UniProtKB/TrEMBL annotation:
GO terms for molecular function: glycine amidinotransferase activity. Residues 1-23 are annotated as: Disordered. This is Amidinotransferase. The keyword Transferase applies. The active site is at 197, 246, 347 (amidino-cysteine intermediate). Residues 1-10 have a biased composition (Polar residues). Belongs to the amidinotransferase family. Keywords: Transferase.
Length: 365
């Protein structure tokens, strides 16, 4: 590639080190956002949640929407989030956090109202970095409509320092979007308007893999493809997950050629021809652990610091064994109390900057 074609690719780039720069899940991590749980409230119920949330949570959300989570659980999870931040800093990674916020405020649009927001604990659900661009998602849970506010100071600061900053069209989230009441054959969202959660996408350099889910429709996937442009190619993959919401407890690339998969959900795909695929071990979490939002498979929801180093939950011993055997160095961090709120290390982070560019890693024929 000539110098002039590089310049055309990045006309806005005035300095060699871009403040936002990440195209995959494994290049050396330099800066990361770590979420925060304090001020979080139970989500306000909407019918489309039935498709993804554990049945024990349905009544809880219906009754407690907008009210604070139990303080002792919040404190325990926030302590673990602080512990993750310290572990990352000890590895030389710059950690930034959203400011503490109160998510209890009611809000309404001309079409619907929500008893409150949710939290700023899972920035991966909301933000995706593609190259030098950071994108805010059009999330389909009404209670999450203003979740991005907690991250605005960070986004403005990245913009000031040269990042490209996009927000997907604000979704209306009217009833037309939701295919509930037995009228949907597969997904809880229709094609009324573009919606997605950023966590349904997984980045492999110039190729981005996405799953359709109960929060991500084909319209949303088309929007993201056009927003990132032809330098990137978005591939929709099939997964075996009737409750699909977020791809990062289904497949996780840990290094070029090394893909960790959920043995219950992964469906063979020729995109990964030439990759070594290993199955995640059964999660080690006790069956009676409170899980408001997700399955115990967040055991495989991990964060890579580089091609050899993975942050892993301290008590997931079978996972630590598998990773060590596969040649990785494990950084064990306590995180079970965060699991309760719907995610682990990948969900609670956004890798803002990794050292490296957008290579080609997948077999796209
Ligand atoms: O396994 O319930 C969790 C993914 C969270 N981002 C699951 C999906």
């Amino acid at each position: 590639m000539t110098v002039s074609s590089l310049a055309q690719n990045h006309p806005q780039d005035h300095s060699p080190a871009r403040v936002v720069n990440s195209s995959n899940e494994w290049d050396p991590l330099e800066e990361v956002i770590v979420g925060r749980l304090s001020g979080g409230v139970f989500p306000t119920w909407q019918e489309s949640m039935r498709a993804t949330m554990p049945p024990e949570s349905w009544r809880l959300f219906q009754e407690k929407g907008g009210r604070p989570f139990p303080q002792d659980l919040v404190d325990a999870a926030d302590e673990e989030l602080d512990g993750l931040a310290r572990a990352l800093e000890a590895e030389g990674v710059k950690v930034v956090r959203p400011a503490p916020a109160d998510h209890a405020g009611e809000f309404a649009t001309p079409h619907w109202r929500s008893r409150g927001g949710l939290y700023a604990a899972m920035p991966r659900d909301y933000l995706i970095v593609v190259g030098d661009t950071i994108i805010e998602s059009p999330m389909s849970w009404r209670c999450r409509q203003f979740e991005g506010d907690a991250f605005r100071p960070l986004l403005k600061s990245y913009f000031d320092r040269g990042a490209r900053w996009l927000q997907a069209p604000r979704p209306q989230l009217t009833d037309e979007l939701f295919a509930t009441g037995g009228h949907h054959d597969r997904w809880a969202v229709t094609e009324f308007e573009p919606v997605f959660d950023a966590a349904d996408f997984m980045r492999f350099g110039r190729d981005i893999v996405v799953q359709r889910s109960h929060v991500t429709n084909a319209f949303g996937i088309r929007w993201l493809q056009r927003a990132v442009g032809s330098a990137y190619r978005v591939h929709t993959v099939e997964v075996n997950d009737p409750h699909a919401m977020h791809i990062d407890a289904t497949l996780l690339p840990l290094a070029p050629g090394k893909l960790l998969v959920n043995p219950e959900r992964y469906v063979h795909n020729k995109l990964f021809d030439g990759w070594e695929i290993r199955k995640a071990p059964q999660p080690a979490l006790p069956r009676d652990w409170p899980m408001f939002f997700c399955s115990p498979w967040v055991s495989m929801n991990m964060l890579s610091l580089d091609e050899r180093t993975v942050v892993v939950e301290r008590q997931e011993e079978p996972m630590i064994e598998l990773l060590t055997d596969w040649g990785f160095r494990c950084i064990p961090v306590d995180f079970r109390h965060v699991y309760t709120f719907g995610g682990s290390f990948h969900c609670v982070t956004v890798d803002v900057r990794r050292r490296g560019g957008a290579g080609q890693y997948l077999d796209v024929g």
